[in-house]
Amino acid sequence: MLYTARMTAPDAPAPHAQDLAPYVRQGRADLAALVALESVSAQGRMLPETADAVTALLEAEGFTVRRSPGQVAPILLAEAGEGDTTLLIYNHYDVQPETPAELWDSPPFTLTERDGRLYGRGVSDDKGELVSRLAAVRAVRAAHGGTLPLRVRWLIEGEEEVGSPSIAAFVEAHAADLQADGCWWEFGSISEEGRPVVSLGLKGIVCLELRCRVSDSDLHSSLGAVVDNPLYRLSRAIASMRDDAGRVTIPGFYDAVRAPGPVDLDALASLPDPRGPLAGSYGVRGFLGDADAREANRRTNFEPALNVNGLHGGYGDAGSKTVLPASGFAKIDFRLVPDQDPAEIVRLLRAHLDAQGLHDIEVVELESHEHAARSDVAHPFVQAALAAARDSSLQEPVVHPSAGGSGPMHPFVQHLGVACVAMGIGNVGGRVHAPNENIRVQDFERGVRFGVTFLERLARTSFRCP
Amino acid sequence: MLYTARMTAPDAPAPHAQDLAPYVRQGRADLAALVALESVSAQGRMLPETADAVTALLEAEGFTVRRSPGQVAPILLAEAGEGDTTLLIYNHYDVQPETPAELWDSPPFTLTERDGRLYGRGVSDDKGELVSRLAAVRAVRAAHGGTLPLRVRWLIEGEEEVGSPSIAAFVEAHAADLQADGCWWEFGSISEEGRPVVSLGLKGIVCLELRCRVSDSDLHSSLGAVVDNPLYRLSRAIASMRDDAGRVTIPGFYDAVRAPGPVDLDALASLPDPRGPLAGSYGVRGFLGDADAREANRRTNFEPALNVNGLHGGYGDAGSKTVLPASGFAKIDFRLVPDQDPAEIVRLLRAHLDAQGLHDIEVVELESHEHAARSDVAHPFVQAALAAARDSSLQEPVVHPSAGGSGPMHPFVQHLGVACVAMGIGNVGGRVHAPNENIRVQDFERGVRFGVTFLERLARTSFRCP
What we know:
The structure is a homodimer. The first copy, chain A, has helices at residues 21-35, 47-60, 127-143, 167-173, 175-178, 230-241, 262-269, 275-282, 293-302, 342-355, 380-393, 409-416, 441-459; strands at residues 6-7, 64-68, 75-80, 86-92, 112-114, 117-119, 151-157, 182-185, 189-190, 196-199, 201-202, 204-213, 219-220, 305-314, 323-324, 327-336, 362-365, 373-374, 398-400, 420-422, 438-440, 461-462. By secondary structure, chain A is α+β, with helices and mostly antiparallel strands. Chain A folds into two domains: 6-202 and 372-462, Zn peptidases (Aminopeptidase, 3-Layer(aba) Sandwich), CATH 3.40.630; 204-257 and 304-365, Alpha-Beta Plaits, CATH 3.30.70.360. In chain A, the strands form seven sheets. Chain A has a six-stranded mixed sheet with strand order 2-3-7-4-8-20, sandwiched between helices. Chain A has a four-stranded antiparallel sheet with strand order 14-16-12-17. In chain A, strands 5-6-21 form a three-stranded antiparallel sheet. The longest helix of chain A is centred in the last third of the chain and has 19 residues, at 441-459. The radius of gyration of chain A is 23 Å and the shape is globular. At the A-B interface, strand 12, strand 13, helix 6, helix 8 and helix 9 of A face strand 12, strand 13, helix 6, helix 8 and helix 9 of B. Strand 14 (305-314) of chain A pairs antiparallel with strand 14 of chain B, so a sheet runs across the interface. Chains A, B: GO terms for molecular function: metal ion binding; peptidase activity; succinyl-diaminopimelate desuccinylase activity.
């Protein structure tokens, strides 16, 4: 692939010269309003209402917003501005469930500032990202007399946390309206030292539920001498699917994995050690296989993984109850890398369970699956994003070939052919998907400043062939 | 051991001649009152209140009741009557938790008649047994002009469902007050065909909780590439502890097991197939190792077993949540046979987990442990109980060398030296420890009739050496 880009205007004034405080303030007010909307897609809560609120925010900044039905929640496609460059932005307005709600130190759906951080479900993933970008758009419009000096196409869905079941078809159906010079992906983070942490790819994902039932109703546990136990069966299934080092033991699981190339592996050398911050922020006891820094980064960027999200069955209250439960279930996810195919993974799992004699373990597909995707660090759009990150932070960005997380990047990269850059305001202690999700107050400001710098740079760049 | 017994009076009138209807009616009223008391020992609910209610019922029938503190609930020791024979009765007034409460078809603490059955927590285990025996005492007293023609010592505790932590010490401390010619154990059942199902032994039990924690708080599941998963660790632990055929794979687990003798094994031949009723009443899908009838009975009577009572961690609501849980736990029980030692089993489990590299699995002892115990079918007290069962039911009793369940029989057999017979009013569809616990209306009547027949026979028998 041949990439080109040239600057069409001289550098704008240094981004630190502009006073962004009013835009940060308004962005925080927008964030409080969105966090208050309990847009839990897994439970179908308040999704149309949140789409309405996001639409109103976009329309107030001059965007034309088209709303399309998704399988779970409305999909918004907004457009504003004019110029040589077209930027596609992807965000989502849905959030993960707040459970276990009792572990939050402040109400999950109330934006709360404490000790230099803002807390609330979605404050990082992904409402904080969304409104910090909107604040940047607002600032750039103001600096340009009320018009955006580039075309921004903004795709905002409400089904990301349930696997974006509608987005691949939507991208195919609206390919012309989504054409762009690059895509600013929904997330990103900032290190403890203030370095932008950028990801150029995402893992794929398969979310499944394993179910086992041995009887219609619970039994006295003395019958465990003759009746099998659904929690043993589930445990056997899970224990059979990986080893103690974290390697998946389902036959064929690694067959399609595209091995990282020399450039990919070289990138690992410059990545900071993720283990210290995880131990510090989350009290993580240890790491799989006692990985060193390079190995931990290799696993995060390039290794598929199996994770158990939840496992439930039988008695769980105080003391003991000698019962043989009728049934149990486990929720699992596989994180995939290029070129693993989610449907094939489900097929391999079923074959594995059958080969293990675990015919009684039912496999239920919980949500639509996603392929992994990666973009090339040499792409000029990626380079423009990195330059903007460097300029706005005055630090060298950390560049991950792939994040450990997932999202519907594959149709953007494969179908639209755009490069995707994930750059945002998360932090390693941000407790995304967990109680006390948070962002640092300072990172929200940094996010707005990066956005302004990025948009200004893109407006002065042409990605067309000369 | 030398047993003797001789009848000291001619046979009383056939037990079916007496009209027991008034005693059955009053017994059902007593049962309704006791079921309404939520005496869940695992949760410390309403235990003194229930002890009060039981005391009042006993005192109304002429019993002197002494109340002693237990670790969890009061222990009652009641005595009434005079004669050559002393019968010890053991019951308990505590019950299992009612969870999952939503699966009950009527309120768990309201005695409810439906389709020929009485429903409610404890209606079978063990309040129904207790009040049916009290109804028999009442009828026998009435028939004998208001006095009991034998001495009855009745030990009723409120900690049975949490492993009877106080009973062994209580039995030792009150051995003189508990001396008897035999002990009528707290439970028993009646087959579909109306045959009394008698057990002469109980398994031992060890109740444990396995805990695993990998971090202070939940993590995004993408970190499953580098951080281990507590539910995988628990699954690995459980899967390592038994095989698919149900055999425990902890090294040394079977070392102390006393093999059944030829008489024990012969007894298996006369036991009915337990599988049909389990499939019919509970919809049991299949049986461990596709056991035949003899093997199913051998396992129930003579094999120790591992059972998982509950396993919980992470997300369990609708849809999916891609979280890496901070922790999880499993509640398990081991059912033991003579001469396995509960403390040694805990030690073997810890050694096994360590040998498996599962040092991070914490083992917590949930409640006091029990040794297995068995009595000899040839003992004259046992023979008297079987004769009474035969006379009152007009059918041949089914005799299990050991039940699959557990209880504190060991101190009675070992320390007091009494033979124990478990004979009562349960049924295979009784859902003991589960939602919709029930007894058949007819079995309650049968229980009262058996009690009258048994007490009358004991009153006419001398177990002393001539």
